[in-house]
Amino acid sequence: MTDTITPAEQATAAASGAAATEVFRNKQSAAAATSKERVDTLAREVLAAMHDIIRRHKVTYAEYDVLKAWLIQVGLDGEWPLFLDVWAEHVVEEVANENRQGSKGTIEGPYYVPGAPEFPAEATLPMRENETGTPLLFQGQVASVDGTPLAGAVIDIWHADDDGYYSQFAPGLPEWNLRGRIVADDEGRFRIRTVQPAPYQIPTDGSCGRLIAAAGWHAWRPAHLHLKVFAPGHQLITAQLYFQGGEHIEDDIASAVKPELILAPTPVADGTGNEVTYDFVLDKA
Ligand code: MBD
Ligand code: FE
What we know:
The protein is α/β, with parallel strands linked by helices. The protein has a single domain (1-25, 33-285), classed as Protocatechuate 3,4-Dioxygenase, subunit A. Helices cover 28% and strands 21% of the residues. It contains 7 helices and 14 strands. The strands form 3 sheets. It has a 6-stranded mixed beta sheet, with no helix packed on it. Fe (iii) ion binds next to loops. 3-methylcatechol binds at residues 82, 85-86, 107, 109-111, 200, 202, 221, 254, 256.
């Protein structure tokens, strides 16, 4: 017996949803305005698509009330960030970055927190003394599309632990566990030591989980590292990197896997874990 509260004992959909909602509300870009014409067009077409579905499937009053109750509960659970990032963000990302020449990106998801502690080019991410998971050396170089190395590029990395929990979204984890901003060296190179994350199941005890259960879907994302790569004069890349052969690479619930984003780590000679090299190419701003 121990009196330590583990994330698994206390993590709830409502708690992680409330944290994700709060983080999103602090994001400045959320306040960006749009024109009346744009709102008119988009809102009208969303509503028309809904009307069309109701007619084609002859949606009943009983079904309409189930939907209403469910939508109310999504908000109460704080799960709008989760819902939107799992089932809609991938298309927004596709449209936003369709003209990029450099490295592929993918969705940000609901668990990024700006302001992680900063580290030099060779660094170990903040982790607990007994952090479980296979050690991973993640190294590479950041360059511009013309091949120029980007000295001082910042690699902002965050990922779940071996149990699938993100710090600040599950209780009992150190504030910045498995989160850090690594500043690349004069040649744009970085060497980051962390542990390989496990496949991730989105919360099953909230509204998103109820939808998944009611529809007979699954709640899994493949194991992934999240990254944002910043360099002056260049477009920010928001990406995730996955692991070759990992579970749910082929059926990510968030539809965010791309072949270019799959890593194939190899065991390091001294038997202390895996290593992998991945280079980032940034488009000019
Ligand atoms: C995640 O960890 C994630 O990356 C996304 C996109 C959605 C839910 C949880
Ligand atoms: Fe994630």
